[in-house]
Amino acid sequence: MADKQSEPPPPVKRYRREEKSSESEEDIDNYEPYVPVRERKKQQLMKLGRLGQVAAEVSAETKSSSDNDPDDETSQEEWGRRYNVSLLDQHSELKRLAEARALSAAERQAREEQHILESVAQSKALMGVAELAKGIQYEEPIKTSWKPPRCILELPPERHDRVRDQLMILVEGEDVPPPIKTFQHMKFPKGILRGLEEKGIKKPTPIQVQGIPAVLMGRDMIGIAFTGSGKTLVFTLPLLLVCIEQEIKMPFIRNEGPYGLIICPSRELAKQTHEIIQHFVKHLKMTGMPEIRSCLAIGGVAVSECMEVVQRGVHIMVATPGRLMDMLDKKMVRLNVCRYLCMDEADRMIDMGFEEDVRTIFSYFTGQRQTLLFSATMPRKIQNFARSALVKPVTVNVGRAGAASLNVRQELEPVKAEARTVHLLQCLQKTPPPVLVFAERKQDVDAIHEYLLLKGLDFANIQHVINYDMPEDIENYVHRIGRTGRAGGEGVATTLLGRAAESSVLKDLVHLLREAGQKVPGFLLEMIGEPDVPAPDGQGCSYCGGLGHRITECPKLEAVQNKQASNIGRRDYLANTAADY
Ligand code: AMP
């Protein structure tokens, strides 16, 4: 034990105390305060040139510590001072941040607009009940025997693109058929060519150049064309051709048909379309072709008149949704052999509250059909709706959807509400009759009707449309004025503008006038309260096509939503012919 005690102790690891640690006076002078890890990290990042990251952290910090606006310059000044960043670097960084913020604002707006659009898009497919039940999906368009003539087929695709460019035709879709510039090359029978001649129609309009070959080939089609562009012939002539072919192969028997169905939102439109069909039927018959029977299923025409044709076997039915629904419901007519469906002015149809009726009508189909959708305006919600019903559609666009016809001279006149009716008399002097007068409210229509005692307007060749008031949305304005200036003729549209008009629709109007190359009166700019309205941001509203606002401020969408909420229909009343369906 004694030995043990005498042993030296095991070596102890020793550390020399650093001299600095001893607190001399000098040390106190050189005192460096403790810097928290977080701060040190930031300084390190600054050194590494990652200004942006630090700045963002600082701004987040500022934001969380107080409820300051992140755009607040003081926070940015503060980090500049705190981290000793040069003014030049601060400037470039602030610039970068501002740009990033602007971008994200645009992104936010785009996202918000997309969200609104999706919420108003029609999601339910337009299909027959059996198709829905059996999950039938048609993958390929209907096949027809029609082919473009060899002389056209032999032409290179560049020629087709050139023709489309020249005529300002925009197309979308797979294997778009070639545009054809003459009716002769479309291989129409003599009767149709004579019918065209008699109407003074010599060469196809742009929508016809591209649309007719597409429809003749059996393709589904979305046609976006301004009113008066000649779209009616795009869906009537090919239908007549296919009916002739069917009739020659196997004549229609009693109660068979219709083979083709054309649905229109108004009686007026249905009547016009039916008259065009009758015109060509007459000429086909004169050239020895079999008789094509067509009937008109609309309110105001006796059901018995239509049933007489149905009972003989009907090839074509032109209908408004209400009357057609009624006849389908009562099993007076069936769609079991219907293979051709055209919805004219599809957006109007949906706007006027026929959406559910159209859905029901689709449920009566039992086989694949060729489906065509035509409209002067085609908001995205309708395009989505259309796509759910069409198979590999070809979209033919011959003008910005929602643009006004260039053939209409748009005149705007400031008039006080109480002076309107009297002023109307002056406006009526501008052109020879007939003149079409529109008003938003039914009581105004009744008052105007009484005042003017107009009866039995003939709708052909209207040279003048008078808007007694400005419609609530620009789309409606475009539709109204499109009743004149048809077939290349000049038309006049007079709009009486009072204080009641919303500034949003007036802004849309300014852009529409500019787009159509027309004069924007000073009083209109004064009414909006802006001496100059800047050029539209992109394509304007993605809901109604108005160029003066975005979807987030769309008066039309708001009206639709209010309508849905209150379930009260708003209609556009046409003086003298407030249509009932
Ligand atoms: P729509 O757009 O179908 O309502 O047609 C408007 C007017 O244009 C009608 O009066 C037609 O007779 C006329 N029309 C249609 N096609 C042509 C054409 N190719 N050339 C001249 N007028 C036409």
> How helix-rich are the residues, as a percent range?
40-55%
Number of domains as seen in the coordinates: 3
Please write the CATH class name of the largest domain: Alpha Beta
Q: What is the total tally of β strands?
A: 13
What's the overall average pLDDT, rounded? 80
Describe the SSE topology.
Blueprint: H1 2-6, H2 25-29, H3 37-47, H4 51-65, H5 73-82, H6 87-120, H7 129-134, H8 150-153, H9 157-166, E1 170-172, H10 190-198, H11 206-216, E2 221-224, H12 231-249, E3 260-263, H13 267-286, E4 294-297, H14 303-312, E5 316-319, H15 321-329, E6 340-343, H16 346-351, H17 355-363, E7 370-375, H18 380-389, E8 394-397, E9 408-414, H19 420-427, E10 435-439, H20 442-452, E11 464-467, H21 474-481, E12 491-497, H22 503-515, H23 522-528, H24 555-566, E13 573-574
Parallel strand pairs: 2-7, 2-8, 3-5, 3-6, 4-5, 6-7, 9-12, 10-11, 11-12
Antiparallel strand pairs: 1-8, 10-13
Helix pairs in contact: 4-5, 10-13, 11-12, 12-13, 15-17, 22-23
Bound molecules: adenosine monophosphate.
Residues 199, 201, 204-205, 208, 227-233, 486-488 line the site of adenosine monophosphate.
